[in-house]
Amino acid sequence: EVQLVESGGGLVQPGRSLRLSCAASGFTFDDYAMHWVRQAPGKGLEWVSGISWNGAVTGYADSVKGRFTISRDNGKNSLFLQVNSLRTEDTALYYCAKDTTPTGEGAHDVWGQGTMVTVSS
Amino acid sequence: SYELTQPPSVSVSPGQTASITCSGDKLGAKYACWYQQKPGQSPVLIIYQDNKRPSGIPERFSGSNSGNTATLTISGTQAMDEADYYCQAWASSTYVFGTGTKVTVL
């Protein structure tokens, strides 16, 4: 079964950091680009970041550029998102999603259940 | 920055056809895809590359994309199709999601 399982979310104060993880199984992880997408409570979807199959190419939404860092460990079938300098507007459910292509620019055909990040003092 | 605009809501009677539009500058020159999200669930890809359906997605879902508008059509709408729908496109080295449309099956 193709599966993505996120972890690492929680309640954190503004300005602090978290590291989100996504464990992949059921497919050849290093054949595909991967992404993080978030959804604030009651709001729509927002693409956050993406990474190519080998980690050589990364991209970020303007809203997180310079604060978030995406990475992957193909040996451990894992995707990560280091989130620094958190703001209240970063409060959201963070989804890990698989791309349909190795390089990104495809659709997101597999999604995890999400990990909640709440930024509040 | 690139924007994709959808109507906030669409209502449809069971068995009828629902059409959801997604508007963006020269969207027809890009690939559009569509996601369905039911309350409390993760999004599900239902259309990619404008009009392709992933395996397991019912044939009643179809897509088109031309000019500035992509359209998701649900033919013979069923009660189970009540959900939020989002379009998405790749533009200027980032992904952009549409504003989302809530489909209500009356």
Tell me what the structure shows:
The complex is a heterodimer of chains A (121) and B (106). Chain A is an all-beta fold. Helices cover 0% and strands 50% of the residues of chain A. Chain A contains no helices and eleven strands. Chain B is mainly beta and 106 residues long. Chain B is built from no helices and nine strands. The mean pLDDT of chain B is 97. The A-B interface holds A 35, 37, 44-47, 50, 59-62, 95, 100, 105-109, 111-114 and B 1, 31, 33, 35, 37, 42-45, 48-49, 54, 84, 86, 88, 90, 93-100.
Give the assembly state of these chains. heterodimer
How helix-rich are the residues of chain A, as a percent range?
A: under 10%
Largest sheet of chain A: 7 strands, mixed
Q: Residue ranges of chain B: pLDDT <50 for 5 or more in a row? A: none
Secondary-structure element string of chain B:
EEEEEEEEE
How much helicity do the residues of chain B have? under 10%
Which percent band covers the strand fraction of chain B?
over 45%
Q: Which class do the helix and strand fractions of chain B yield?
A: mainly beta
Question: What would the average pLDDT of chain A be, to the nearest integer?
Answer: 97
| Form type of chain A | globular
Rg over alpha carbons of chain A = 13 Å
Radius of gyration of chain B: 13 Å
The stretches of 5 or more residues of chain A where confidence is low (pLDDT under 50) are none
How does the SSE layout of this entry go?
The complex is a heterodimer of chains A (121) and B (106).
Chain A: E1 3-7, E2 10-12, E3 18-25, E4 34-39, E5 45-51, E6 58-60, E7 68-73, E8 78-83, E9 92-99, E10 108-111, E11 115-119
Parallel strand pairs in A: 2-11
Antiparallel strand pairs in A: 1-3, 3-8, 4-5, 4-9, 5-6, 7-8, 9-10, 9-11
Chain B: E1 9-12, E2 18-23, E3 32-37, E4 44-47, E5 61-66, E6 69-74, E7 83-91, E8 94-97, E9 101-105
